[in-house]
Write a structure and sequence with these properties.
Length: 479
């Protein structure tokens, strides 16, 4: 009976074909939409100051429950759901426009590119925190929701070719990790430190990788130990997402040995990302690797063959990680010109969208998207989506908070998203453990809509309390 249930759960997440990019964009638009409503409440009514129980509940519903509803109960009505969120924000903005007066801005400094002397070189930025926090929330919800029938099958990971919400989530997680990894490179650049030796870089990379590799082995042992349902074609027999994350820093350390001269950091990592992505795509199509990964004998080459998806797709995830670093190179530093930063972000977003369209199956060279391969179109889709998402969050921040008095970062960032961002590693690990516990305890395939939503609400509530508790305690465990 246990084996039969395992097979049923494996079949439930196998051989899926996904949905459309348009629908995925509408569903994920709930994150910027709720940020707009949060910002309208904050700037027009000063609702989240002080931050008490009512504010916490509102924050919880806006930044976690809304995302949960968008991928379950309202999954077939994403446009309507976004309108229901945006209409109150529009009403607040229009009715209080006259009363809401922003303070006069200071005159711009003559040097439009240099940050003010008192401002840190790498300040915290509200839109980046909101972006990463929202991405973490939707990722944690989806990894459990996918096991219930209330979660549409078109949102679950695609078997071979196509796009889905969870395919987007995996790549976005890697992109986001790359974005924040740019911080250390920028610190060294601003300090004008001499380039580190390969040995020093590898030592630091292994220190960053070790916790993730350990978590990968822990997950492997737990999955095999309890005979947990597995989707083998996702990463392979032994490989899992923690291994993919864990092996990225050492590969990055090796790539940083390439001579670059005085090349701009954004262009450097962009060219590295494109170089890895194009080279990998060429290898896929010219060597028979693509055919082997999709339909080849899994037992032909021992461990390599048993984990062919995870090992092969690693190159694609490395390209995504490098593109995230390239994005971080121009987003993380302080700048006196917000207009210039906005134009730069929009320009790169358009460029990535153009590259994606140039190779995609429908508009370009006829290359299909495959998360299983993490091929070139998948890499370009992930980067294009995330840069556009960042532009959306930055637009909201600029519209509502540009010129606000006091600590604009503190005012602009929802407490719950700040907590999810600050403790990503701990929250993600607990989310995986709770997902396993729920699946071992109950048959998720027979749970009705109401019960499924209740379980998911309790689950995300536990994660929220954990994240906020760690944040209030001053604990920081990031990815």
């Amino acid at each position: 009976m246990a084996q039969s249930m395992k097979s049923l759960k494996e079949d439930f997440v196998s051989n899926l074909t996904g949905g459309t990019i348009t629908e995925i964009n509408l569903v994920t638009a709930v994150a910027p939409a709720t940020y707009i409503l949060y910002s309208a409440l904050q700037t027009r009514l000063n609702f989240f100051r002080p931050y008490g129980p009512l504010q916490f509940v509102t924050d919880f519903f806006l930044n976690t429950v809304a995302i949960l509803l968008s991928i379950t109960l309202y999954s077939s009505l994403p446009l309507l759901f976004n309108l229901l969120i945006l209409l109150p924000a529009l009403f607040l903005t229009i009715t209080s426009a006259a009363a809401h007066q922003k303070p006069k801005r200071l005159a711009k400094p003559k040097n439009d590119t240099a940050p003010p002397p008192s401002e840190p070189l790498l300040p915290k930025k509200a839109f980046l925190t909101v972006y990463r926090g929202s991405m973490m929330v939707i990722t944690c919800i989806a990894i459990l929701a996918v096991d219930f029938r209330i979660f549409p099958r078109r949102f679950a990971k695609v078997e071979n070719w196509g796009t889905s919400l969870m395919d987007l989530g995996v790549g976005s997680f890697v992109f986001s990790s790359g974005l924040v990894s740019a911080r250390q490179v920028l610190k060294d650049h601003f300090a004008k430190k001499a380039p580190s030796t390969l040995a020093v870089r590898m030592k630091g990379a292994m220190r960053s990788s070790a916790p993730l590799i350990v978590l990968g082995f822990v997950r492997l042992a737990m999955v095999k130990g309890v005979d947990y349902a597995e989707h083998v074609t996702e990463y392979g027999v032994h490989w899992n997402f923690f291994f993919t994350l864990g092996f990225l820093p050492p590969l990055l350390a090796l790539l940083q040995s390439i001579p670059t001269g005085s090349l701009d950091l954004t262009w450097l990592y962009t060219l590295l990302a494109l170089g890895v992505g194009v080279t990998y795509q060429t290898v896929l199509e010219s060597t028979g690797l693509q055919k082997y990964v999709l339909i080849g004998d899994r037992n032909a080459y021992g461990l390599l063959g048993q984990n062919k998806e995870g090992i092969s797709s690693f190159s694609g995830y490395l390209a995504i990680f490098l593109a995230g670093m390239a994005t971080g190179m121009y987003l993380l530093p302080s700048t006196a010109s917000k207009n210039k930063l906005f134009k730069t972000l929009c320009s790169w977003s358009v460029a990535w969208v153009f590259l994606f369209c140039a190779v995609n199956q429908y508009w370009g060279l006829g290359v299909g998207i495959s998360r299983r391969l993490a091929n070139l179109p998948y890499f370009l889709w992930i980067v294009a989506f995330n840069t556009c998402q960042l532009a959306a969050f930055y637009s909201v921040e600029r519209f509502f908070y540009d010129g606000c008095q006091g600590d604009s970062y503190e005012m602009a960032v929802p407490k719950i998203l700040e907590a999810f961002n600050a403790n990503g590693l701990a929250v993600f690990l607990v989310a995986n453990l709770l997902t396993g516990a729920v699946n071992v305890s109950i048959n998720t395939l027979t749970v009705g809509r109401g019960a499924a939503v209740a379980i998911l609400l309790g689950y995300v509530g536990v994660l929220t309390v954990l994240a906020v508790g760690l944040d209030r305690s001053g604990v920081r465990i990031k990815l």
